[in-house]
Amino acid sequence: MPDTPSARPVTGDELARVATTSQRQTPAERLLEVLGPVGRFHDPQELGDFGMPARAFMEDYLEPFAKAGPHSRLGPLEKVHAFWFAGMSCDGCTVSVTGAQAPSIESLLLGAHPGIPRVILHHPVVNLESGPNYLRAHEAAVQGELDAPYVIILEGSISDETKALETGGYWSGQGEEPWGPDGSLRTVSTDEWVARLAPGAAASIAIGTCATWGGVPAAHGNPTGAMSLMDFLGKDYRSVLGVPVVNVPGCAPVGDNFTETVAAILYFLQGFGPLPEFDELGRPAWLFGETVHRHCVRGAYYEEGDFAHDFGEKECLVEIGCWGPVVNCNITSRGAINHAGGCMNAGGACIGCTMPGFPDKFAPFYKPAPGSSVSTLVASSVGRIIRPLRMYTNEHLNREVRWDLDKETPTAWARERAEPGPLREAGHKVYDVLRRKGDRGKNGGAEWGKRPEPAEVGDPALEPEVPQQTKPKDGSD
Amino acid sequence: MCFKNLPIEFDASGQARLKGGIADPYSFSVSRPEVGMTDAERETQINALIARNGHVKDLNMDPVTRVAGALAVNVTADLDSGTYLDARSQATLFRGYEVIAMGRDPRDAIFITSRACGVCGGVHAHASAYAIEMAMGLAPPPLATVVRNMQEAAEMGYDNPLHLYLLAGPDYSEIVVKAVNPELWPLAEKWLCPGEKQHGFKTMADLMSALNPLTGELYREGLEFTRLSREMFVILAGKYPHPQTVCPGGVSSTITLQTLNEYHSKLGRIFDYAQRLLAVWDDIPEFFYEADERYTKVGSRPVNLIDSGFWDDPYAYDATYANCSEWGDRRWSTPGVVIDGKLVTTRLTDINIGWEEFVEHSYYEEWAGDRYETDELGNPLSPHHQWNKRTLPKPTGRSWKDKYSWATSPRWDRHTVEAGAYARLFTTAMAQRRPPSDLIESTGTSLKLLIPKGLTAERAVEWTIPEHWNAFERNRGRAYHYVFSQLVGFENLLEAYKLFRSGERRVSAVPPSELDKHIPTDERRSVGWWGAGRGWLSHHLVMEGGKIANYQILTPSTINASPRDPWDQPGPYEEAVMNTPIIEDVSDPSKFTSIDMLRTIRSFDPCMPCTTHVDTGHGTIVREVNTCACGAD
User: Fold this and answer.
1) Is B501 exposed, middle or buried, given 0-12, 13-18 or 19+ CB atoms closer than 10 A?
2) pLDDT tens per residue, range A243-264
3) pTM of this prediction?
4) What superfamily would CATH give domain A290-398?
5) Would the CB atoms of B247 and A311 count as touching at under 8 Å?
C-alpha cells in the first residue's frame, strides 16, 4: 500500500518567487501557480463501480423523475449542474438548506418547482456515488467537457493552502486526482477545485458567513489563514455570465434565503423573472437590504424605551448585547425555518452572524454594543412620553361602548385597574371627538333604506352630553 | 470499577490514585497490537498480495459521501476471500476551532465553538455552556435545564431521521439493493414485514422502494420530520444549527405558555412518526439476517462503548466537578463505559480520568510537558488527558506509517471505544440509575419505552441489548434513541408546565450584566459533558487570568474516526471495516462497489466537521498492562 504524499512540498525558492508576484495576484491565482497545470484524470475503466452502490450516478437515477418537458420549463435551460464545495465548513449551511421550503431542496432536484431547469447537485452529503466516481463530473468541468452550464457553491471558508503546502500537507481536502508527481494521486483541496472551476462557472455563490466573509475560521488567532470566496477570487472576478461572487451570508443562513436566491437567478436565466438585485457586497438586496431590527418583533419595545435586563425577559434585547439595529438580516421576519423561530423572536440577542465583521467585531458576546448606550438613552426619553399615552388609549379601546355608558365593566376576572374617573373619561371623549372629525357618517340627512329607530347603544362621541348617573370613584385618576 | 491498562487504583473510599512503584506511570511504547498484525506486518503482507494477485485492491474512497463532512477511507480488499485486509480512516479537514477559542473572553466560547459543527451545532453550544458555567460557578435554575433538555430532545428529533433516511437509508433502498445485492430482491418481494401495521409496507421490497433517495416516500418524509423537529428547536433557541439562546448559567429564551404549547402540539405528530420509524428499522435487520447470516458481521466490533450521559435532572445538576458523579447519575441517559459488553463504570470522574488522546497518526505535533497531574479532586490524569493536551496543527504528506488523518486517537483506559446515540441505550439500560417513569424504564438488559398516543394508539416497545453488534444494530439503536429522546422531550415539557404552575420562570443564574463579575481571574479547569446525535461530546476548558487558556473538544466522530493509536490498534471505523465480510458479488472485480464497507461506515453516522483538532504525547513506548488491584467499586 503506497504512501501518497498529499502534495509535493513546496520549496522556499518557489514560494519566494510566487511571493514576489503575489501583490498582483489573487490568492486563487497564487495557489494555481504553485500547483501548476493539470492534465491527467481518473481512468473510468479502472475505477469500475467502486463507490457506486446503485451502479448509477445520482443524475441518471433522478433524470426520469426530474426532467421536464419544454412546456413546463418556461425557458432555454433544461439543466444546470451545481457543484457544492464544503471548504472550512461545519456543514451548517447544508443543514440549513435541507430545512428550506421556499423552494425546498427536493423540489429543486426533482424539478418540482415549475419553470426552472433541473438542478444536478453534486453534494458530498447527498449523492449516491462516493470516491473518485463522485468526482467524475468535477473532472469534466475542469476539462470544459461538462454537458450543461454549471454553478459553484462554496460553504465554509477558503483556507490558505499555500501555508499547508509549505509542510507538504493540506487543510481541507476533497478527493484525490492523479495530479501528483508522475501522475501519482494526491489530495485535492477544496480551494484548488474552486480556483480551477470558478472561471468557467455561470455563477459562483458563497453560502454562509464563512464563505461570504471568512467567518469564524478566519477569526482572530486562526491557524489556517482562512478567507472568504471574494478574498480568494479577487475583485476582478467575473463568472462567464459576467457576475461577481454572489453572497448569501448567515451563520447558519436561513435556508430559504439561499434556495430563493438560487431560484431567483434561475427565473431570470429562464427569461421570466426580473434581474435579481444585489447590493454592493453581492448580497440579495431584497433579503438583506434592511436591518434585522426594523422587522424585529421586539422593535416596538425599543421605540417605547423598554429594555430587557435579564435573560428570558420579553422586551428589547439591545441592553443585553443585541446588535440587531446595525445588522443586515431578515430572520426576525422570515423566521429560522418554516417561519418559526428567529433569534430575537425566541430571546436570542443578535450577535451579527450575517455580517463581514463577524465574529471579532461583535465579541465579547452578551455585552451591550457601545453605541447602544446613546441610542437607548434617546429611546428611553422618548419612550417615557409615548408609552403612557399608548397605555391611556389602550385602556379606552379595551372597553365596549356599552361599558362606557354603564360606567362598569361586567368582567368576573380580576381587574387591576379601576373604572376611569371623570378626568380620564373626559380625555377619552376628546380623543373620540378628534377621531370622528371629518367622519361623513355625522352628516345630516335621512338614511332612506332604513326605518328610523332609536339606537340601542349610542356612540359616546355622538352623545350630546355625558350621562348624569355617576358611580362612586376611588379617585385614582 | 477498575482500570485494566491505566496505572490507577482506588482506595477504600473510591478515591482514585496512581499505583505505587511505577517510575513513569503513563509512559507507553509501541508494541504489538491486540488486534491482528502490526502495521508493518500487515503492510508487508498486503504489498506481497498485491504483487502476486489481481484480486487484491488498494483503493481510496475520497470523499465518502452521505456522511456529514470530509471523510476518506482507504481500504485494501481481498476480493477472493471477501475480506477487507486493511482500512484507514482519514478526516480530511482542519479548521482550528480550539486554537481560535484560546485567548478569548470566556463569554465568546459558546457562540464560537457552536460553529465547530453545523450538523449538531446545538450540542456544541450546550457543551460549551456546561464547561463555562462550571468554571464560573454558575448553576442554572431548574427551568433553564428543562429548556435545554427540550431543545436537545428536539435536536435529536432532527438528527436521527436525517441520518437514517438521508445518509444511511439509500444503502438499503431498492435501487442499491437491486444493483449490488440482486439475489436479495426476489426475497424482499416475498418477505412480509412484521411491522406492516406500523409502517404500512407489506413487503420488504415495498419498504426498500420507499427508501430510494429523493423519490422514495420514507426519504422525503424523513426530511419533513427533520424540519418539524427543527421548528420545535427554534421556537426555544431562535435558530438552527447554531442556537442563539444558550448562555452561561442557563438560557436566554423567552419562555411563554405559547412556547410550551407550540412545542407540545408538534409532539403528537412526532409520536405517530416514531412508531413508523421504529418499525422500519426493526424490520430491516431482521430481513438481512434472515436472507444471509453474514450480514450479522457487517460492521461488527467488540461492544466497547462510551457515553457522557445526556439531559440533566434540573434538581440535581449543580455545575460542579466535585459532584459530577452524583448529578451525572441522575441524567435521563446515564453516563457510562461498556467494555466487552460489561458496564464498567457510570461515574463521570472515572470516565474523565480514563481518557487520553494521541496524535501518532494525526497531522499534529506532539506537545511537551503536562500541566496537571490530577484533577481538582486528586484523581490522577494522564499527560495525554484533554486538560493536558495542546492543539498544534502540522499539515504534512500522508503516510500510513506516520500521519494520515486530521482526527486524533482518543482512547479510554487505552481501549478503542465507540461513541453513538445507541451507547446511551446500553448504559441507561444496564445501569438502572434513573427511576422508572410512565414512559421510560430500564431493566438491566433492556429499555422499555411507551410511545404515547397521537393519531396512532399508544404502543409499548422495548430495546433489548442485541446479540450481535454491527451496522444494522447501530441503525436500529439510533431509531430507538429517536423514540427515547422524544420521550425525554415530553417528560421535560411536562416538567416545564409544572414549573410554570409553581410560578418558577427564571431561566438563568445571573443577568448578563453580571456575567463579567463571575469570570474568575484565578486558574480554573472545567468540562462540559453533553451528548450529540452520534454520541459522546465533551468540551474541556482551562481558564486563566480571566481568559481561555486551553480549549479541547472531544467529539463522537473523533472517537469513531480515529486513526491507529500508538499500539497500532485501529480506530472504530477501521476495525469495523476490517471485520466486515465482502458480501456483494465481486466475480467481476470491476463491479466492486464496496457497499459493505459503506454500510459499515455510515452506520456510525460519521460527522466530520467537528472531528478534527488535537495532538499527543511524545514518542512511543511499551504499553504497561496493569493487573487490576483495586478494591473499591
Assistant:
1) exposed
2) 999 999 999 999 999 999 999 9
3) 0.91
4) Cytochrome-c3 hydrogenase, C-terminal domain (4.10.480.10)
5) yes
